[in-house]
Amino acid sequence: MHWISKSGLFILAGLSIPGFSTPAMAEDASEVIVTALRQPQAIEQVASSITVLDKAAIDAAQALTVSDLLIRTPGISFTRNGGYGTATSIRIRGAEADQTVLVIDGVKLADPSSTGGGYNFATLMTGDIDRIEILRGPQSILWGSQAIGGVVNVVTARAQRPIEGSFDIDAGSRDTVSARAALGGRQGALDWQVAGSRFTTQGISAISPRYGAKEKDGYSNSTLNGRLGVALAPGVSVDMRGYYAKGRTDIDSAGTVPDSPEYSQTEEWIGYAGLNADLFGGALHNRLSFSRSETIRDNINPSRKQRPLSFAAKGETNRYEYQGVLTIGQGWTATFGAEREEQRMRTASPPNSLASYATIRGSADIDSLYAQLNVEPLAGLTLNGGVRYDHHSTFGGNTVFGAGAAWALAKDSTILRASYGEGFKAPTLYQLYSDYGNMALVPEKSHGWDAGIEQHLFDHGLILSATWFDRSTDNLITYNGCPTTNRPPLCYAPGTTMPRLGYYANVQRSEAHGLELAGVAHVGRLTLDGNYSWVSAEDRSPGLNYGNQLARRPRHAANGTLRYDWTFGLSTAVAVRWSGKALDAARTSATVAPFVNDAYTLVDLRAEMPVLDKLTLFGRVENLFDDYYETARRYGQLGRSIHAGLRARF
C-alpha cells in the first residue's frame, strides 16, 4: 500500500512534461526578461536552454537553500554529504560540479582554494533572492573559464518604492529555524536595500547511522547583504554591493569511528563597485567595475589538545572589468569587454602538535577579451555569435567561439532554440600546488551544442518543450588514489621519495548527451508542471573505465508538481522528485565493482494561505514517506521534515 501511494502521487504530479524555460511564471512569456547574458534580453530571444525562477516561484517552493530549488529543474543533479551545511555539488547536464559558474548580482563567485575552484552551494540560502536564472550549456564567451556546464545567475531583491520591507520566518523539524528581514527604498537619485538572515538546525548525522554514526551534526548560517545605487547625472550612476556570510557545520569523520567533535567554519565576503555611463544618447552603455571575493575555511577539532586547528584555507579573487553594450541599429547589439582576474590561494593542514608545518600558496592571473554580436535579421529571429580570448599566467592563451539562434515562429506560439559553445578551464590552484598537485596538468577543453523547441498552446494553457544536448570534454581532471604497492611516480610528492595518498591527472575524454523534456498545464484552478531528464555522461578514456557513467550522475531524473488554488485563497500542492540510480565512483578495478547509490523518490506536501493583505502563512511536509537515500556513499540525507512559517511584504 505504501508503494502504491507513492506511485500514485508520482503519476498524478507528473502528468505534464514541463518547460525548460518557465514562461508560466509570467502572464505573457514576452514579459520575462533575462539578465544572465550581461544585458536585459527577452526570454524568447535567448538561444540557450534556460529556466527562470521569479520571486513567486521561489516563495511557492518554500525551499530554504538554492540547491533545493535547482535540483527541481531540468538537467540538474546534486550531491550533498549529509544535512544542511555539508558539502553540496551542483552538476548541470552531467558536467563536473566545478564547471558551473555562480553569479550573484553580476559578481562571479568561486573559491580558488577549493579542490575544483568552484562554489560550494551548501552556504547559499534563498534569503533575499528575487530571481534565479539557469543557463545550460557552455557559456564561456561571456562568463569565461568554468562555464562549461552552465551558469546560475542569482539576483537579489531591489526596492521599487520609496520605502518597502519584508520578513520571513520558518521553523520545523530538528529545531530548524530560518529567519530573514529586509528593508529598502527607491526615491529620486537614490535606491538602497539591506537584508539579513539567520539559519540554525540541530541537523542529522552527516555519516549515516547505518554506518555507525550516532551524534547529530548541526549547522548555523548568518548572512548580511546590501546595495546602494546613486544616479549622479542623466545616464551616469554608481552601483555598490556587498555580501557577507558565516557558517558553522559539524563534521563527521570518514574513518571507522565516524562521530567527531570537529566542525568547520566558513566566511564569505563579496564587494562590488561599478560606474555606469551612457554615451551617444544611450546607444553605448559602459560599465567599469571592481569586485573582490574572499572565502575563509577552517576545520577545528576540540579533541586535539595541542593544536585544535586541523585545516585552514583562504581563497581570494580580484576582478577588474570593463563592459560595453552598443546598439548599432534596430535589432543589432554588440556586447564586448575586457577583464582581469587575479586568484590567490593558501592552504595548510597543521599537525596535532606544536611542530612547524608548511603553508601551500598559489596564484594565477587571467586576462580576457570578449565580444558577442546579437542580430535580428527577421522579425522573431535572433542570431548571436561571439569570441573570447583568455590569457592564463601559467598556461598561456586560449580562444573559444560560440553561436546561437532563437526563432519565435509565431507570436507566443512556437520557439526554436539552438546554440553551440566551447569551453576552457585551467587546472585550479589546488590541483596544481596542493599536497596532491600535479604541475604537468593541462587545461580542460570542451565543445557542445543543443537544440530545442518550446510550444505554447491554448493561450498559454499548455506549454511543452524538448531539448537535446551533446558535449565532449578533453583532458578532464580527476583525482586518482594511489596503491600501497607498485606505486607510479606521481604517487610520490614531487621531487621527493615521500609517498602520498593520491594525485590529480588528466583523463583523455568524457562525453555527455541527453534529452530534457518539460512542460506546464493550467486547467482552471489546477496547475501541473514537471520535467524529465535523460543524461548520459560517460568516461571515454581507453581502458577498464571506458563507458562508465561519471560518478554521482543519475542517467534518469524527474520532477513533478500538482498545485490547486482554492476559491477562498488557500493554495495546496504535492511535489515529487525522483532520481535514478548512480555510480558512486566512475573508476573501477578489475576485482571491485563500483558502489551504486540506489534510486529514490521523495514526496513533499505544501500549503500557503494569505491571512491579511500583506501576510501569508505557509507550511510543508518534506520527504513525506521518510525514505532513506544517499547521494554519496555513507552520507545520510534528511528524513521526514515538517515546517511552518509566515512571510510578510509591506
From TrEMBL:
Record flagged with keyword Membrane: yes
Major localisation: membrane
Origin superkingdom: Bacteria
Subcellular location, record wording: Cell outer membrane
Residues of the TonB-dependent receptor-like beta-barrel domain: 216-624
A GO BP annotation: cobalamin transport
Cellular component, GO annotation: cell outer membrane
Membrane topology term: Multi-pass membrane protein
Protein name: TonB-dependent receptor
